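The protein record reproduced below.
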Amino acid sequence: MRICCLLLMAALSGCAGQAREARRANVDRVTLRKQLGRSLIEHREWQAATQPLIELEQMAPRDSEVHVMLGTVYREQGLYEEAEAQFNRALDLDGRYGDAWGGRGLVREERRDEGDAAIDDFKKAIQYAPNNAAHYNNLGFAYYVRGRYEDAVRALRESLRHNPSSRRARNNLGFVYGRLGLYNRAMHEFERGGSRAEAESNLGYVFEDAGNQEAACERYHEAVRLDPTLAAAASNAEHACPTQNARRE
């Protein structure tokens, strides 16, 4: 009997070892696929990332990061319902996951949902990831499109406090200052958020938005002079300044 027991224990030990090896192999596969998913997302290869992440979701259904990555690639392809479902799943697994709150907020904002649900999500994202500059930027832009310019300035300046080199936050802050009529401050932010030609083009848009066509055209044409390859400035000048264009010809 003792021999049989020893044999049984040895067999159980062997099975346990095999189970550990199988789990380790699965963890390694998940880790490698997550690295692939992150790389594809970093390079904005949204479509290429979709199928590997779907397969990864099947391998690791309780990994909240996987759901956030899949939600991100769905959102970037305009698949908002699928994206929201993934972010909701991530939040079901981890209600303190800031990127899941931020991702769902972007879905709601890009989908143009009514009300302030997106703002509420961005605030939650900041609560759980207070050092992530992107969440403050997204909150600031959401305030901007709602005409809450002072709130937008505060959020965007906080974004820049965490990431002073963010071109997106710089330019967003410039557009907010433009709406407030603070054109010198707007230009200052635009210059720090891109080339001089891009700054001139952005300020041209600010003036056009304010109804000052003459100032807008002056800026657009200066942008084209500085950088003839800047397509946005050339396009804006073409549609906003037909009279001035004719005189130049």
In short: Residues 187 and 203 are 6 Å apart (CA to CA).
